[in-house]
Write a sequence for this structure.
């Protein structure tokens, strides 16, 4: 009846709960985390020679970047920053695709570093939650 293992199902429920209760800012953090995680896993699969899983993880990272991060850019409000982010995301996606096609994971640490830096920057500008005073 269920096709997922317990840990995988738990992870899906945990992620779904995070997404459901997330602010738009937190959703971007989740997208960055997902892309970075997929790239790290692809790096492991490059090293172990697991071509199928490597391709799956690279595809997952590209999908998150293109259909999550890039698709969410607001060029009207974001102006030059949105345009520069678009270029960065396009570079990362293209380089991931090239890595898979050339079967070379040597650029993955650089891409992971770029996206980790973007994630840290995004997290540092998080809107502050207003404190509710009790009493």
């Amino acid at each position: 009846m269920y096709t997922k293992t317990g840990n995988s199902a738990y992870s899906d429920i945990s992620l779904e709960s995070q997404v459901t209760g997330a602010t738009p800012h937190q959703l971007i953090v989740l997208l960055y985390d997902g892309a970075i995680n997929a790239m790290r896993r692809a790096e492991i699969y490059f090293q172990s020679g697991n071509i199928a899983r490597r391709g799956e993880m690279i595809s997952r990272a590209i999908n998150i970047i293109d259909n999550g991060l890039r698709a969410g850019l607001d060029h009207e409000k974001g102006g030059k920053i949105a345009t520069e982010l678009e270029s960065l995301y396009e570079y990362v996606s293209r380089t991931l695709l090239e890595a898979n096609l050339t079967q070379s994971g040597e650029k993955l640490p650089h891409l992971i570093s770029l996206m980790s830096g973007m994630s840290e920057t995004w997290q540092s500008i998080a809107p502050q939650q207003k404190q509710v005073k009790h009493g």
